[in-house]
Design brief:
This protein is an alpha+beta fold. It is 49% helix and 15% strand. Strands 1, 2, 3, 4, 5 and 6 form a 6-stranded antiparallel beta sheet that branches. One of its GO terms (biological process) is proteasome regulatory particle assembly.
């Protein structure tokens, strides 16, 4: 049998279909053997003639010959089908391995490109108070800040730049981008009054480049 669908990749559904056909053939073979069993227990090789060489009168010769012929044909079909099942499973397994290797390679390439294309950080979070707006937003100690609202490495001069953005954004979400564990992470931070000091509840220090 040609590859299912004229060259398209083998799927799990194709294998299941082949196995169903295999089960059907096995059921047909069993039915033919039952038919032979019903004919005085005649199997595949018992003689169909009596001791004098005449066709046996105690059995339905046509039924026996037909059943024997069908069994031989079905067994050949079964053998071919088993080969197809084996080949399909092999292709399926090989494709899974190939996909896994490709996924790993893509993940590695993405990680490498992430590292190469990470923007420059200008400040770092060195303290986050639990329960503060910064903590609730998901900001973490050692996060390196690359964007804080409108502030980035190109226009950052000192921490007053960040303080100004915070004061003008009270109660409104700020887009903050940090580098964490070698990856870029976006955080939505809303400066607001809380039980502690300031509007953020975190400490930020400039990065010395």
């Amino acid at each position: 049998m040609a590859e299912p669908g004229g060259g398209r990749p083998v799927t799990v559904s194709d294998v299941q279909q082949l196995v169903r056909r295999k089960d059907e053939i096995e059921a047909q073979i069993k039915a033919c053997y039952w038919l032979l069993e019903g004919q005085k227990g005649v199997g595949m090789h018992e003689p169909l003639v009596d001791a004098e060489g005449f066709p046996r009168a105690d059995i339905d010769l046509y039924q026996v010959r037909t059943a024997r012929h069908n069994i031989i044909c079905l067994q050949n079909d079964h053998k071919a089908l088993m080969k197809q099942v084996e080949e399909a499973l092999h292709k399926l397994h090989a494709r899974e391995k190939e996909k896994h290797a490709r996924d790993e390679a893509e993940a590695l390439a993405e990680a490498m490109s992430q590292n190469q294309s990470l923007p420059q950080a200008f400040a770092k979070v060195n303290a986050v108070t639990p329960g503060s707006p910064a903590s609730i937003s998901g900001l973490q100690v050692d996060d390196e800040i690359v964007e804080f609202g409108s502030v980035n490495a190109n226009n950052f001069q000192n921490l007053q730049n960040i303080a100004t953005v915070v004061q003008h954004s009270e109660g409104r979400p700020l887009s903050v981008t940090v580098i964490r564990g070698g990856r870029r992470v976006h955080v939505g931070l809303t400066p607001k009054r809380w039980s502690g000091k300031g509007l953020l509840g975190c400490n930020i220090i400039p990065l010395q480049r």
